[in-house]
Amino acid sequence: MSLVQSKHAGCRFCNMTRSVSYTSTVDRILFEDEDYFAVSSIGGFIPGWALVFPKTHKLNLSKEYTNPVFLKFASHVTQIVSSEYGACVIFEHGSTTENSATSCGVNHAHMHIVPFSKNIELLALQETDNLLWKQANIAEISSFANGNEYLFCANAFEDISTIGSFSKVTNPRSQFFRQLLAKATGFGDMYDYKRYRFEEVSIATADRLSQKFHIPSSV
Predict the structure, then answer these.
(1) Domains of the chain: which residue ranges?
(2) CB under 8 Å to 78, separation ≥6 — which residues?
(3) What pTM, to 2 d.p., does this model score?
(4) What span, in angstroms and rounded, lies between the C-alpha atoms of 201 and 149?
(5) Collapsing DSSP states into helix, strand and coil, what is residue 198?
(6) What is the chain's pLDDT, residue by residue, as a tens digit (219 residues)?
(7) Which residues are 196's β-sheet partners?
């Protein structure tokens, strides 16, 4: 499959942006423009956990990180979440194939924005099994990945100036960053969004954030 398609019939995130009504209580779009949308995260055991998706169906965001339209949208979402819940980290599980363990079973590229006061990069660097971490500017991800699956995280989102930790993935590990955050916040094995959906947290996040968004000015 191509890494980029306009829509994918079997993708629930593509279906969320179709003209037909999408009525899921949890999968409620908080904010959108012509190219991107944000939702609260199923399995988000941390209040305020949000996801940013491109409306074009693709498997990772490596090419988006140099797109000023994406950066502006993601910055706006991060600012709103931070204003309500405190400082946020960001991360992506960048896959290159459908149903890859790296993408945790979500076959549509997305960036996580999570209120978290600790150092997610340090937590990641402590996980060295088959991972070779290096510092990366967000604009370098595409060239560093070079078509491979990857993990990327940063302690803050600062538009094109974002600096974080990057590693190619050779042995995929499902929900890698969710596992780190669950361990750090006392949720242990409850990182798995398929088993522990935390819908009440997601709904509360959506209710709180949906009142705070407004359309950012044009780039």
Answers:
(1) 4-209
(2) 88, 90, 113, 157
(3) 0.91
(4) 30
(5) coil
(6) 344 455 676 787 888 866 544 455 667 889 999 999 999 989 999 999 999 999 999 999 999 999 999 999 999 999 999 999 999 999 999 999 988 999 877 889 999 999 999 999 999 999 877 899 999 999 999 999 999 999 999 999 999 999 999 999 998 889 999 999 999 999 999 999 999 999 999 999 999 998 898 644 444
(7) none
Sheet holding 29-32, edge to edge: 29-32, 36-40, 50-54, 111-115, 88-94, 150-154, 163-168, 134-137
Superfamily of domain 4-209: HIT-like (3.30.428.10)
Q: What are phi and psi of 54, to 5 degrees?
A: -80, 145
- The region that residue 178 occupies, defined by phi over 0 for left and psi between -120 and 50 for alpha, beta otherwise, is alpha
